[in-house]
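Is this the right way to post structure tokens for a design question? Let me know if I should format differently. Anyway, here goes:
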């Protein structure tokens, strides 16, 4: 039987106590581990990680909102946490414990002004998917099958206090001081607040799906403003599998390549033409078809890429630009990697490390076709670990890197990881955007 919630803690004290309770359980798990270790020296930390991951996830999943969103973001990073955590936190992408039926009906009625049974011909009170901000229910209206996303009560008002509670944990996990994390947390807070605004999500969903209509093998639901509100979003029901279920069916490599190409082209268009990206590329937001087509849902997290940032960040992915020292100096200064007060030694060390990483990330763009492998992803993470050991990176004297890079990088890592899971070979189409960047910097005429 599925465990449901009749209420979600919304007060600062109630939510803080949930996290304190999780901390107490983790402490108990460590005591249990060390006791077993005393009796049996061969005891490993695997059981400890599993117990901690379960207890932390249970607490975060009942809090919902930004606390659970942090777990979702961490689940996409296969190198940051032990596998027990990433596997458990991945559940937050679409299978968190749902609201009970009565709570769903109250939340819907409070936002829309009517009961869902008055709005739809049929409405299923048991949800089909539950994530960090809201959960999805199936409904019928005038012969159409619809997906109704209902936001958890009190989530929007808890974001700031949740992030204040999570910040010390994140600081400790990433080894960064308060001043280094502040501008990034501000960016995360802004995005999370946007994600609780379903009116904005509906607008962006319609804009981006219209912009991407001509991309092969990608399709989107139709949205229904007349049934939606700031806390309820209604769209067509799309069939399909999430990535894990899709791969469990053992599709052919040809089909996997088709899925990967569709995703790649979808993101290429957003990054280099629309300058607005679906910045939540976890598997829960894609419905994959047996024939290789991809349904895209959930445009709550959209990063609008400022044009000025675009023309100073993405050129570093183009080898001809990256090899031009005069341009590189301008780019790294503009995106806040290098500062005028840095010593010559620090400048050389940071520039070398950053260019080595961008060279690795740009490897797919340097050929017409590219084969993604787990080994390639491992290289990226290994390089990240190497860079992290640089003193100025590990213990920075000032925050480095534009805040706009946070969600852009997250998007790239998410897509690269999905490409590797598919073991996909794709056409990169880098020439569609690299020429305009070279032209912008006067290195090649279009």
């Amino acid at each position: 039987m599925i465990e449901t919630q009749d209420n979600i803690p919304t007060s600062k004290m109630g939510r803080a106590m949930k996290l304190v309770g999780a901390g107490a359980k983790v402490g108990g798990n460590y005591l249990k581990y060390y006791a077993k270790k005393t009796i049996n020296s061969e005891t490993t930390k695997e059981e400890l990680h599993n117990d901690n991951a379960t207890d932390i996830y249970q607490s975060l999943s009942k809090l919902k909102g930004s606390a659970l969103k942090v777990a979702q973001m961490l689940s996409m990073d296969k190198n940051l946490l032990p596998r027990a955590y990433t596997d458990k936190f991945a559940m937050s992408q679409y299978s968190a414990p749902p609201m009970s039926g009565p709570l769903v009906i109250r939340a819907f009625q409070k936002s829309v002004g009517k009961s869902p049974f008055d709005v739809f011909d049929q409405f299923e009170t048991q949800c089909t998917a539950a994530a960090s901000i809201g959960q999805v229910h199936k409904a019928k209206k005038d012969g159409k099958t619809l997906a109704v996303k209902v936001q958890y009560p009190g989530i929007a008002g808890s974001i700031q206090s949740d992030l204040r509670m999570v910040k010390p944990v994140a600081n400790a996990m990433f080894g960064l001081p308060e001043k280094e994390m502040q501008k990034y947390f501000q960016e995360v807070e802004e995005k999370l607040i946007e994600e609780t605004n379903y009116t904005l999500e509906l607008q962006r969903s319609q804009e981006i799906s219209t912009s991407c209509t001509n991309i092969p093998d990608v399709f989107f639901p139709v949205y229904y403003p007349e049934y939606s509100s700031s806390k309820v979003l209604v769209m067509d029901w799309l069939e399909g599998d999430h990535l894990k279920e899709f791969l469990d069916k053992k599709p052919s490599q040809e089909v996997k390549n088709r899925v990967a190409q569709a995703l790649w082209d979808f993101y290429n268009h957003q990054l280099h033409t629309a300058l607005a990206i679906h910045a939540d590329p976890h598997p829960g937001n894609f419905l994959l078809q047996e024939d290789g087509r991809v349904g895209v849902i959930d445009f709550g997290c959209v990063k609008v890429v400022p044009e000025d940032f675009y023309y100073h960040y993405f050129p570093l992915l183009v080898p001809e630009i990256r090899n031009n020292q005069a341009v590189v100096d301008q780019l790294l200064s503009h995106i806040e990697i290098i500062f005028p007060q840095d010593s010559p030694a620090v400048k050389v060390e940071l520039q070398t490390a950053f260019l080595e990483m961008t060279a690795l990330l740009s490897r797919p763009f340097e050929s017409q076709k590219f084969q993604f492998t787990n080994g390639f992803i491992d290289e990226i993470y290994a390089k990240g670990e190497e860079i992290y050991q640089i003193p100025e990176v590990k213990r920075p004297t000032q925050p480095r890197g534009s805040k706009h890079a946070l969600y852009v990088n997250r998007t790239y890592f998410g897509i690269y990881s999905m490409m590797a899971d598919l073991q996909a070979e794709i056409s990169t189409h880098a020439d569609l955007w690299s020429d305009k960047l070279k032209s912008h910097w006067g290195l090649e005429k279009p």
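Format looks fine. Someone answered above. Worth noting: The chain is about 55% helix and 10% strand. The first helix runs from residue 12 to 39.
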